[in-house]
Each structure stands twice: as structure tokens, then as C-alpha cells.
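Usage

Read records sequentially. Each one opens with the input sequence:
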Amino acid sequence: MATSTDNPGVVARPPLIYLGAFLIVLVCRWFLPLPIDAGGRGLVPGLALVALGLGMAIWGRRTMEAAGTNINPGLPATTIVSSGLFRLSRNPLYLCLTLMYLGLTLAVNTWWGIAVLLPLILVMHFGVVLREERYLEKKFGEDYRQYRSSVRRYL
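and closes with the structure output:
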């Protein structure tokens, strides 16, 4: 079976990368809890961050669907999305995943989430974001370069 080369060739689907990282956090927490707050007051703020991230992710996903492009980075991009959250960041869905990850870290009350965050961000940056950027520039050329010059990569 032939595979399409019309995709960025990311190392894995981003939600799975975040899920894998959070599973590592939970395993580490099981062996050594390392609580952020001894009083356990992070549950409500953590769940609020998860809800905020989820709401923003739904908005971003709907924006991509309305533009008619694929959300799955393993499938071809059909257009550059520059409306909604994509006016503020070229990678808003990944920022939403990070926000949800941090919310879960607070909710389960462990510093392990912060310790795993740096490797997680490095995997996302080099294994997903930079690959997507090279792909989009190759596919859309000047249109993508103009978008890239006017919208920040992250925040």
C-alpha cells in the first residue's frame, strides 16, 4: 500500500503525545507524589484550565472544519487557516493541549507534570511544529510565508 507524502510527517498525533506524557506523569506520581500544594487546592483551578483549553480547542477545531482543511496532521492540508484563534497563534490547538495538560497537572497535584513539560514541548516543537511549518511552506509557498510573518508561532 502506498502512503501519501502530502502531509508533514509528524512523529505522532499531538493528542497522543500529550496523553503519553501525562501517563508518564501519573506513573511517576504513583511512585513519588511530589505534591504542588499540600492542601490539594489545585483541583478546581486545574479543572478550570482543562475546561478553558477544551473550549478553545473546540473553537479551533470548528474553525479548521469551516475552512475545509484536515485537522489530523497525517492528512493533507487544503488551506491555510488564519481566522479565529489562528489569527493569534499559528498553533492554537497545541497551546490548548498544553493548557489542558497543565490543568490536569494541577488537578492531580504533582510537580511531575512540570518536570515532564519541557521534554513534551521539545517533542512537540521538533517532532510536530517545525515539520508542519516546513510542509506548509513547501505546499503553500508565499501565502504561508506571509501568514507566518504576521502571526506568532505560539503566543
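Summary fields computed downstream for this record:
- The chain has a mean pLDDT of 96.
- Residues 42-150 form one domain.
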